Amino acid sequence: MPDTSDTPDRPGNARPPSRHRPAASGAVAGPAPHYAGHRDRLRQRFRDGGAAALQDYELLELLLFLSIPRRDVKPLAKDLIARFSSLAGVLSADLGALRAAGLSERSALALKTVQAAGLTLAQAEVMNRPVVSSWQALLDYCRAAMGRSPVEQTRILFLDRKNRLIADEVLQTGTVDHTPLYPREVIKRALDLHASAIIMVHNHPSGDATPSRADIEITRQVQQAGKQLGVVLHDHIIIARGEHASFKSMGLI
């Protein structure tokens, strides 16, 4: 069933005329909708045990409660998980895909807001910190930011002399299997930011993190361009779903 939470109110917020006489004063109200108790129980389980106490679709239900206050959202949550494979897949889907799956604009925007908040929290764990001491957090952030992107994108992590992350920018977005990148632009941006080192990161939507010949060649070009102007390329990381590859660990840098 589609999400109708965006259905506009009637003019003046007037209620439609009732077909029944109003209940007499002191009359007992009708029974609560069947999903009301379920919502209360789900919230209590979350209070008691946190996210670990709930399945993905149940966490998604909790999020949908915020934008769909009066409806049983369990079927919708299960349908979304089935369509996008996981809660992470739902949150990473673009607005168009969420709308096509039956969500209203309000609900789709609410889910994208949750994703944006999560990325902000992940980024806060690595910004202005030495990358050596926060390497796992850095990988987690990169996976969250681009691991499920349907197209390739290249982001550059700019570091200061103490190897603290001072900026994180997406420089190029390409197709499903290619991203154009220009080494001079990468190094010029590093100089603009007064960065002394960089880490290249790009994703493989195919799910295979193995570097291609083109990946190896562009890495070599960026490394050479950086050497000429005193900008060190520390690593090039390829992010894929569930895995990553480090050029430094593989001996390619």
Could you characterize what this model shows?
Keywords: Hydrolase, Metal-binding, Metalloprotease, Protease, Zinc. This is DNA repair protein RadC. Residues 1-35 are annotated as: Disordered. Residues 131-253 form the MPN domain. One of its GO terms (biological process) is proteolysis. With 253 residues, the chain is α+β, with helices and mostly antiparallel strands. It has two domains: 35-120, no CATH class; 126-246, Cytidine Deaminase, domain 2 (3-Layer(aba) Sandwich), CATH 3.40.140. 43% of the residues lie in helices and 14% in strands. The chain has helices at residues 34-49, 56-67, 74-84, 87-92, 95-100, 105-124, 135-146, 183-192, 213-229, and strands at residues 153-159, 165-173, 197-203, 232-240, 243-246. A five-stranded mixed β-sheet has the order 2-1-3-4-5, sandwiched between helices. A hairpin with a 2-residue loop joins strand 4 (232-240) and strand 5 (243-246). Helix 2 (56-67) packs across helix 6 (105-124). The longest helix is centred in the middle third of the chain and has 20 residues, at 105-124. Mean pLDDT is 84; it is low at 7-24.
Compute the gyration radius: what is it? 24 Å
Series of H and E elements: HHHHHHHEEHEHEE
Give start-end ranges of low-pLDDT stretches.
7-24
Number of domains: 2
Give the number of helices.
Answer: 9
Reported for the largest beta sheet, the result is: 5 strands, mixed
Number of strands: 5
Task: Return the average pLDDT rounded to an integer.
Answer: 84
Q: CATH H level of the largest domain: which superfamily?
A: Cytidine Deaminase, domain 2
Shape: elongated
How far do the termini sit from each other? 52 Å
Domain MPN: 131-253
Biased composition (Low complexity): 23-33
Region (Disordered): 1-35
Pfam family, one: RadC
